[in-house]
């Protein structure tokens, strides 16, 4: 908070421009001075700009960085509730990794990501392009695909639970019975659990992604299509040579966001299956949640959180490395 | 000059504005301790009407403030009135005590934020099943001195005291006790023709009979005969009952003090096979196999299930939330397995906020005395009990049957039963077996990492109920091996 400096440092620099211009600040600096006094001078000059940033920084400090740092800190301690009791180095990490369900939850988290890419990645792109091509009713469809996003996640999961009710009285099973298919176990079939959870997540959440793709599609220069038409390019050719390359930036951004988002899935399995049956839908974050809220073992929970964080870091780095490599080759 | 002044003034205003905005935002955050709906049964509330007070020994009368949890919500007028009456008595009798209200009642999800932020009420409710992790996390105060001072250490059933004792110190106060029994939905039983001339349902005496009764219900009504939970650690919690009565046990300590997981014995496998048969041989369970007590209350309340394991404290929510009639419910003791009967102990606790001062704890115990939760049959305690029952009768709860007796003083037990009999509002024949035969088969929770054990059993139970070809022996072998490695090997 101490950004309001001693006014004695301020020098009455005649500045005809009433708006402080940060870009001009370095050029006004005379010969190099000791760092401390340079910072003071800089603050003295720019304190009002800094003041504007302060609220954001404080909010970030309190609500984002502080929990992050104290989480990492706690993960190295034996904890009682949320208080650190004794430094145990990587003890929590060893416990968490050696736990019998760890490998399965790790694998499950990747399976979630896999299915979300299979089910949910191409789908919004296709829908966005389709809506973009519409001549009429564009705004209706834009609203219609976004609509499910407004339903709270938990409520949506509860409704899906009713639809997926196993046995003859489940809604989906009744529909299936009309076309002569016997009742399915749905979420209780351990092979189907994750794909079904991902499908419900996709149906609920793809609208937001569609809007982003549509915004990007609107930005494509129409002259490209006209030129392509003159050169005799068909629909598919235009799609693969113009549309997709033009939105490839946002596609790759969504890819990384989706991977990191789905990797941390926990609300949907918590509501729909509690990680069951037989841990078939348990994810890393759900396990972390159980450590913290069901067993009050903050240390274990934080350690698992940090492990998840590191895995995502590695994935992201690999992704950017590949991206760069392909860019160079292209 | 003028411009410079204006500019300076504007900056200062801007700065002040931002700072005050920020401060008010931070301040607003402090009101976070909102009340959440109580997870405890509606029967928790009790009340008191005092007669003349016992003479309190001379004590420090420094001003002290305590916060009482589970304060009745505004719509629960009868109980609210009673709490306010006790507050008024506190004021006259102990004027140095200030009482604050907190409507928060124990809830698994909101407990942790409340505890971590130091917002726990001085006196709060909890359950036996939660005690272990709360004590481990040091979210309950050591109340040993107060327990001794007010005579609870000798006045309460020692079996119950064991649950809140660690290394000779007490961290909680048992307020009621129940053992698990069988719970019957009489509407479904009538539909299935399983009720005798006196309205008493056919209560199965063995697990084999339980399965057969459930089959009859399913055949006659098409509804699920029996409910068995499988998630939220409740599957394992309930499975212990079956396993014990099949002769199995879960953990044993050898001479060197090491713990060993032993729930892959032939007896345990037979018990798990029984659960599996309920699904695949008898087909009497609900279609959905990922369920817990919340689902039970909904299905039972909607007359979709005939029987379930249950206990006295389930009756309150069934009447209050599921709108069941108190006359449609019955309880019996557990069926026998090859090794006899076994029933797990359950119930409610009072716990005290960590960091409470001696004076605060003392004031909280004085509050409990006025509420009637004392080991001796004082006129105060009995009057409190009577008032509480009056309210329960008014609100349509089941009154008359009792859970486990927590007090050791026979005089108090007898006096309490006399009052209960006076206010009984149900056919006592429906609960007689539960009251007579349950306590004898009482078992405490497994000693080490009970919740983690239940979780391990949950997954095993889910496996046998969702996969027809699952092998109980293989599943239990694996669970034993993992539970041993993940938890028991780490016990010091």
Automatic annotation (TrEMBL), chain A:
Pfam families: BPD_transp_1 (PF00528). It is a multi-pass membrane protein. GO terms for biological process: transmembrane transport. Residues 13-31 have a biased composition (Pro residues). It is found in: Cell membrane. GO terms for cellular component: plasma membrane. Gene3D superfamilies: MetI-like (1.10.3720.10). Residues 106-319 form the ABC transmembrane type-1 domain. Keywords: Cell membrane, Membrane, Transmembrane, Transmembrane helix, Transport. Its main location: membrane. SUPFAM superfamilies: MetI-like. Residues 1-31 are annotated as: Disordered. The chain crosses the membrane at residues 47-68, 110-131, 143-164, 192-215, 247-266, 302-322. Belongs to the binding-protein-dependent transport system permease family. This is Sugar ABC transporter permease.
From TrEMBL, chain B:
The keyword Signal applies. Residues 32-61 have a biased composition (Low complexity). Keywords: Signal. Residues 1-25 form the signal peptide. Residues 32-73 are annotated as: Disordered. This is ABC transporter substrate-binding protein. It comes from Cohnella fermenti.
